[in-house]
Write a structure and sequence with these properties.
Blueprint lengths: L6 E7 L2 E7 L5 H8 L18 E4 L2 E4 L12 E3 L12 H9 L8 H14 L5 H8 L10 H9 L24 H6 L14 E7 L5 E5 L2 H7 L3 E5 L26 E2 L5 E7 L1 H6 L2 H4 L1 E5 L5 H7 L13 E9 L2 H7 L2 E8 L3 E2 L7 E7 L2 E6 L4 H12 L6 E5 L15 H11 L3 E4 L2 H7 L2 E2 L2 E9 L5 E13 L5 H11 L8 E10 L13 H18 L4 H8 L19 H24 L4 E13 L9 E8 L4 E5 L8 H13 L6 E5 L16 H24 L6 E5 L8 E6 L2 E6 L10 E9 L18 E13 L5 E11 L6 H20 L24 E7 L21 H13 L10 H11 L5
Parallel strand pairs: 1-5, 6-18, 16-17, 21-22, 25-26, 32-33
Antiparallel strand pairs: 1-2, 3-4, 3-5, 6-10, 7-9, 7-11, 8-10, 12-22, 13-20, 14-19, 15-16, 15-18, 20-21, 23-31, 24-25, 24-30, 27-28, 28-29, 31-32
Bound molecules: FE2/S2 (inorganic) cluster (2 copies).
The site of one FE2/S2 (inorganic) cluster (FES) has 13 residues, from loops.
């Protein structure tokens, strides 16, 4: 094939003329990002599926990834960098900031451009027009609600100024990292690498189980001068295994002659990008011997094929067990019993930012810039893999374009680390969308059966649960899921007798890992369905039944833990009561007047222990002031969009007594911040939030002691950004005490005063029956959903939802609402459409996630039953927000149609078939 000649293309970019000599077929997204350095335009798929790359071409929204630069001759282009003027956000950007419309921010440039094209044409659009305009851009974090509200707000010609004083705990303070997400200045993992970086591409298995050989790599190297090295498992000098647990490092970084799932890494090619990308698998002489794969729960347990991992002969990686009292006796004495079986599908995290990063050698250390939820775990993992000391590894986290648990496991880290260490050159890697989807973890598919009983007056008597979780080829978080589910499977209810057994089973499928809830959302589906059935059997309203049985202060959980404080489940359910009655009534009236469309209203509940299960779970946070008065929060709690950077500043500001606007922050850099643990298990607001409060209080105490002022003194910080010293003015009843900061000897990072806080929530280990206190606190919640089912098509539309959550104390209502709306979007996807199938839905075209048009109207009710251990009473919300959604939607389908969907997602074909098989006559 003849090489394509470069041509000259002239166009206007953000009001400035541009002329480039380029290959006319190049994607414009690549030209913007690589040639012009405008990385504000993001790439989530390179295939026209996600909309992250949306730009304006002559005022129309277009995907830059599907636009060849040659098409742009004479056109006017606008990108996100062309919105703000002289550093001032435009009205649309300001509305996004005020409304909290950007969480992780990776979709935000695309959303802004889609909204701008609408507002330029139609300055006062209707909500329907806004939904249409945004329908081509996916957001995985926000649930779209705040984005739509922001665009509607931008119809005004001016915005109310934001109250600058509203920064304390409980206020709607704007994100501290919000502005850079709205201007395109935020640096994500694919946005930055040293100029001289080599490119790394991984060759992955196309088979779920196979042996392989590599025959002629030296020929490839000889024929491709730009190719520097082909890495195989033989190049790994440390431990070629990684995994979450110190004792289970079962997943090879590069497979050793045998692969266990489709997408497993086999070889890493490193060199100049064009050379690396031009090598084919045939060139490499890679030969495969496919083997029969173990798929699904039954095959895993059948023993017919060789086990997935030879040391685990029965494919049972881990088991969970909980026994409280005697379920058999209790079931025998129950007035009614309900039971059933359910299965769920693998669910993809679907963050819009594929994994990326680079590593470079600095002396005898490695610096790794990467998207991650857990920098300190990455540090330990890479060190053990390379046979280095942890302190030789510095993890510098990028901004994270969504995680939801999927970026707890390592991805590019060991690959770029190995190559950079051996070649002594910077090496970068950016996963393609299909690579991200085939190689990373999923939500565990589960096959579960459950049984519940109650007395005549509607008190729960017993609950039994068996769940086999398909954990795929490697452990990832399988044992954690097996442990967490038994504790939570009977829901936020007092049940005197509980028996729960779980297994994490190895198969030749994608490793299943952590995904918002660690198995709890799946178990909640069975739990809520059974509660509805029991209520129906005894003729009780389903919500009243839940209220009657909800956990209260003084109750004991299935692990026999006494709940003494902060148990807001009854309040959550009570707060939904009036809507529940009204919506159910309205649905009944609607159904009397409609034949082929039926409405139903269902309820789902959640409780979730905040933090690691029965494990030490510490977080350390520091805050420092330097000689010039620069005030820095050293925040090791990764912000993956949920707002940790912002709420930690709010908490520290209140604890220290200085305004939030004076804070700068560092996030997650292992050289600069202390270990705050991972961003998972709804722990950061509770655990790191408390550590932050303690750090602020510690610094305040030092200042008070230094100035010999009284405890309630007011602090004022005079910051001197240029030359000279900053000053702390401490004012009490005796007058002003001045601390000249430059007069104090600097400690670490140049800070002269450093406050530190550490918090490790109290938990106990569980005994052989799973009894003990696995979490220091629990968050609670309940959702109700109204759905509309088309009986002839089997389609389900969620019309409205109400969500009540007890989160102890709301640090920032905007952030919390965003978490709940985003959780509902993911729960809705899990309930109705999301199903990851190998070879079928390995891209964002075939894998369906909710778009803006799928979202219902959402009402949020925040309940604050303070947790004394938490920062100002706060607990977590991240996972609680998702758990009740799918159960509520499925219960709504049941209420509408009379059928109970037992295999998720409830796609139109499944709903239609269930209705047909039920024999229900809607005529
Ligand atoms: S990157 Fe262009 S649509 Fe996804
Ligand atoms: S804010 Fe939209 S994907 Fe994260």
């Amino acid at each position: 094939m003849s090489k394509i000649q470069k041509t000259t293309v002239s166009f206007t970019l953000n009001d400035l003329p541009q002329t480039l000599s380029v290959n006319p077929l190049c994607r414009f997204s690549d030209v913007l990002r690589k040639d012009l350095g405008l990385t504000g335009t993001k790439v989530g798929c390179d295939a026209g599926d996600c909309g992250a790359c949306t730009i304006l071409i002559d005022g129309e929204q277009r995907y830059a990834c599907l636009t060849a630069i040659g098409q742009l001759e004479g056109q006017k282009i606008r990108t996100v960098e062309g919105l703000a003027k002289n550093g001032d956000l435009n009205l649309l950007q300001q509305a996004f900031l005020d409304e909290g419309a950007a969480q992780c921010g990776i979709c935000t440039p695309g959303m802004l451009m889609a909204a701008k094209s609408l507002l330029d044409r139609t300055p006062k659009p209707t909500e329907k027009q806004v939904l249409e305009a945004l329908s081509g851009v996916l957001c995985r974090c926000t649930g779209y609600t705040k984005i739509v509200e922001a665009v509607l707000k931008a119809r005004q010609t001016s915005l109310e100024p934001v109250d600058e004083a509203g920064t304390a705990v409980g206020s709607r303070m704007a994100k501290v990292d919000g502005k850079q997400k709205l201007t395109g200045e935020e640096i994500y993992s694919a946005d930055h690498a040293p100029e001289d970086s080599l490119w790394l591409r991984t060759i992955r298995s196309p088979y779920p189980r196979a042996k392989f050989t590599l025959n002629q790599p030296e020929n490839v190297l000889r024929n491709n001068p730009g190719l520097v090295k082909i890495f195989t498992s033989e190049d790994i000098t440390g431990n070629n295994g990684f995994g979450i647990y110190p004792h289970i490092k079962d997943q090879p970084v590069l497979a050793e002659g045998h692969v266990r799932f489709r997408g497993e890494a086999v070889i890493a090619l490193v060199g100049e990008r064009e050379s690396v990308e031009s090598v084919s698998e045939e060139d490499l002489g890679l030969t495969w011997e496919p083997l029969e794969a173990i798929r699904g729960w039954d095959m895993a347990l059948s023993g017919k094929l060789k086990p997935v991992q030879s040391e685990i002969v029965d494919n049972i990686l881990a088991e969970g067990f909980l026994k409280k009292n005697d379920v058999d006796k209790a079931f025998a004495e129950s007035f009614v019993v309900a039971e059933g079986d359910w299965t769920t599908s693998a669910v993809e995290h679907g963050y819009i930012e594929p994994e990326a990063g680079f590593a470079r050698k600095v002396g005898q250390r490695l610096e790794i810039f990467v998207c991650t939820q857990s920098p300190y775990m990455d540090q330990t993992e890479v060190a053990q893999f390379l046979g280095l000391k942890p302190e030789q590894i510095r993890i510098i986290p990028s901004a994270v374009g969504g995680g939801f648990g999927g970026k707890l496991d390592i991805s590019v880290q060991p690959l770029v680390a190995l190559a950079a260490w051996i070649l002594d050159r910077p090496v970068r890697c950016i996963y393609t969308r299909p690579e991200s989807m085939v190689s990373t973890t999923k939500r565990h598919p589960v096959q579960m059966s459950a049984k519940a009983g109650c007395s005549k007056d509607g008190k729960l008597t017993a609950y039994e649960y068996h769940g086999d979780f398909n954990t795929g080829a490697y452990a990832s978080w399988g044992p954690t899921v097996a442990d967490r589910v038994p504790i939570h499977c009977s829901g936020p209810y007092f049940v005197p007798n509980v028996l729960a057994k779980t297994r994490a089973l190895l198969t030749n499928e994608s490793p299943s890992g952590a995904f918002r809830g660690f198995g709890t959302p799946q178990a909640a589906i069975a739990n809520d369905a059974l509660l509805d059935e029991l209520a129906e059997k005894i003729g009780m309203d389903a919500l009243e039944f839940r209220i009657k049985n909800a956990l209260r202060k003084g109750d004991r959980t299935p692990t026999n833990q006494l709940l003494e404080k902060s148990v807001g489940q009854v309040e959550c359910l009570e707060s939904l009561k009036s809507r529940w009655r009204k919506w159910r009534k309205e649905a009944e009236i609607f159904n009397q007047n409609n034949t082929n469309i039926k409405r139903g209203v269902g309820c789902g509940s959640a409780w979730y222990g905040c933090g690691n299960t029965s494990l030490s779970n510490p977080s350390t946070i520091r805050v420092g002031i330097n000689g010039k008065g620069k005030l820095t929060l050293y925040n090791g709690a990764m912000d993956i969009g949920q707002g940790a950077n912002t709420i930690m500043v709010q908490i520290c500001s209140d604890a220290l007594g200085l305004p939030a606007s004076q804070f700068e922050y560092v996030m997650g850099d292992t050289d600069l911040t202390a270990d705050a643990g991972k961003t998972s298990a709804s722990r950061q607001a509770f655990v790191s939030g408390k550590a932050t409060q303690l750090a602020g209080e510690n610094l305040r105490l030092q200042i008070i002691q230094l100035s010999e002022a009284s405890e309630n003194a007011n602090l004022r910080l005079e910051q001197n950004k240029n030359v000279g010293s900053g000053k702390l003015i401490v004012e009490d009843e005796a007058g002003e005490h001045v601390i000249v900061l430059a007069d104090i000897l600097p400690q670490s990072n140049g800070d002269v005063l450093i406050g530190e806080g550490m918090f490790d929530p109290p938990t106990t280990t569980l005994d052989e029956n799973g009894q003990g206190s696995p979490y220091a606190t629990y968050g609670f919640g309940a959702h109700i959903a109204e759905v509309e089912v088309d009986i002839l098509l089997g389609t389900t539309k969620v019309l409205r939802m109400a969500a009540a959550h007890d989160l102890g104390k709301t640090i920032n209502p905007t952030q919390v609402e965003g978490q709940i709306q985003g959780g509902i979007a993911q729960g809705l996807g899990m309930a109705l459409m999301e199903e990851y199938i190998q070879c079928v839905s390995e891209n964002l075209h075939d894998y369906l996630m909710p778009t803006v048009g799928d979202m219902p109207e959402i009402e949020i009710i925040l309940i604050e039953d303070p947790e004394p251990l938490g920062p100002y009473g706060a607990k977590g919300i991240g996972e609680h927000a998702l758990i009740p959604t799918a159960p509520a939607i499925l219960a709504g389908i049941k209420h509408a149609t009379g059928v109970s969907i037992r295999h998720l997602p409830a796609t139109p074909d499944r709903v239609y078939t269930a209705i047909k098989e039920s024999g229900n006559n809607y005529e």
